[in-house]
């Protein structure tokens, strides 16, 4: 993957490259249980192994990484857990949205998740599962692609054009071979959002998953967010997701916006 430390920062005199590289290392760890060695981290960050060795040593000393002696590999340390807990505690929107999300999850049997952008991904900050035996298993902290998922497309549809174009340009640089398909999917999602207020992804991220999402701005200095309803295609066909789940999702988002004092006309 392309290092964000090397993208769009080349002429920023205030940009601290060493700090950015350290943060790049931390973002390689998708969850607290993931173990990575120096070679894997170096490949993911596109940095020399010697540089990664110094960065991981520093991060271990500060508690952001811990080394597993048996394997010589690394996992996230307790300092990152403390940071994550502090951030989640400040997201009041989670407390407002969660009971409404759980109601929708119970009504549909599907997975209902709240997420926001982290670079070229959407990261889940809340997730509620329904009672279906075929529900998806994606929890808080899960990362999914921004351009091929419903929730990512919903985020991009509501984002300022400058932010959306920057993300799309990074995706093009990262994988030019698949760019035309990605661009077509995003363009279709923008049209869909203009017509319905939602964005969908029918087997485009994962051939077995159908989903629909809607964005909103929580205000209060919080980042733009989106809520999605997702399920396995075998249980949730396209028409059901669009015709039944779409209106239910918009109603949920409207309630969240109202409770946040952010209710605005939807497209």
Please summarize what this structure is.
With 267 residues, this protein is an alpha+beta fold. The protein has 9 helices and 8 strands. A hairpin with an 8-residue loop joins strand 7 and strand 8 (225-232).
**Cross-sheet strand order for the largest sheet:** 5-4-3-8-7-6
- In N-to-C order, the SSE pattern is HHHEEHHEEEHHHEEEH
Number of strands: 8
Residues in β-strands, percent: 15-25%
For the largest beta-sheet, the strand count, sense and barrel status come to: 6 strands, antiparallel
End-to-end gap: 35 Å
Count of runs of 4 or more consecutive helical residues: 9
Which whole number gives the mean pLDDT? Answer: 87
Q: Report the uncertain regions.
A: 1-9
**Structural class label:** alpha+beta
* Chain oligomer state: single chain
Report on the structure:
With 267 residues, this protein is an alpha+beta fold. The protein contains 9 helices and 8 strands. The chain has helices at residues 17-27, 38-45, 49-61, 78-90, 92-108, 150-158, 161-174, 179-196, 238-260, and strands spanning 65-68, 73-76, 111-118, 121-129, 143-145, 199-202, 209-216, 225-232. The strands form 2 sheets. It has a 6-stranded antiparallel beta sheet with strand order 5-4-3-8-7-6. The protein has a two-stranded antiparallel sheet with strand order 1-2. Strand 6 (199-202) and strand 7 form a beta hairpin. Helix 2 packs across helix 3 and helix 6 packs across helix 8 (179-196). The two termini are 35 Å apart. Mean pLDDT is 87; it is low at 1-9.
